[in-house]
Amino acid sequence: MNLTVFTDYALRVLIYTANQPEGKLVQVDEIARVYGISRNHLTKAVHRLGQVGYLETVRGRGGGMRLAMSPHDIRIGDVVRAMEDDFAVAGCFTNGHCVLLPGCKLRRALGEAVDAFLETLNQYTLADIAVSAAAFRAT
What we know:
mainly alpha, Arc Repressor Mutant, subunit A, two-stranded antiparallel ribbon
């Protein structure tokens, strides 16, 4: 299974934001500069993270974003679920057409594998994976 760049960027935003002093607003430009990635792509990830409740965004001059909840309450598997649109690991997931259905057991096995993958990620919180703020200062 391969996560999209969108999910990667969303996780990076959360990690960076988790490493800021509590309540500090962070701007997209700052994160884009630190990671060396597209501001436009980050903006889309930030928007979705705000929609699903992981980030609080403040508009206007001096605005930015901050975590909307404690990093201890943000489960990585839940973030991945919220960011990914499609967990299809085989063609039969996407189009639902399989000449072997209803006897095919592969679809069920792959579905269970995806569930296990996400459940493993849910054993970790943002607090568990956030690197120290010193790592950002070193870049």
